[in-house]
Design goal:
This protein has about 110 residues and is an all-alpha fold. Helices cover about 80% and strands about 0% of the residues.
């Protein structure tokens, strides 16, 4: 499997775990709490697989950045949270950083 596919699976798993964390209500709800552990466990597993072929800085930078952007999108879509202009600008800068790391930088696997 391609290392970027493992990284994508890790990011998606983290988004599931983080969403479940919000829904767990301080770990007082069993099913979302289970989702936290499964989501984060799978996230670390898939990220570890991507690290077999990709540089640490690229993997962690991409994982963290797209996790932030994804969680912000989930917050808006699922929980009615709002993004103000500084948040939108910040997200655009984060996405620009991911582009630089993965497309422009020599760190990436082209």
């Amino acid at each position: 499997m391609h290392p970027y596919a493992f990284l994508a699976a890790g990011i998606l798993s983290e988004l599931v775990g983080t969403t479940a964390l919000k829904l767990s209500d301080g770990f007082s709800k069993p099913l979302p709490t289970l989702g936290v552990f499964v989501g984060y466990g799978l996230a670390f597993y898939f990220v570890s697989l991507s690290l077999e072929e990709l540089p640490l800085g690229l993997v962690y930078g991409t994982w963290a950045a797209l996790g932030i952007v994804g969680v912000a999108a989930i917050g808006v879509a699922a929980f009615g949270e709002r993004l103000d202009w500084p948040a939108v600008v910040g997200i655009a800068l984060i996405l620009g950083g991911v582009y630089c790391l993965n497309v422009l930088s020599d760190m990436s696997v082209h």
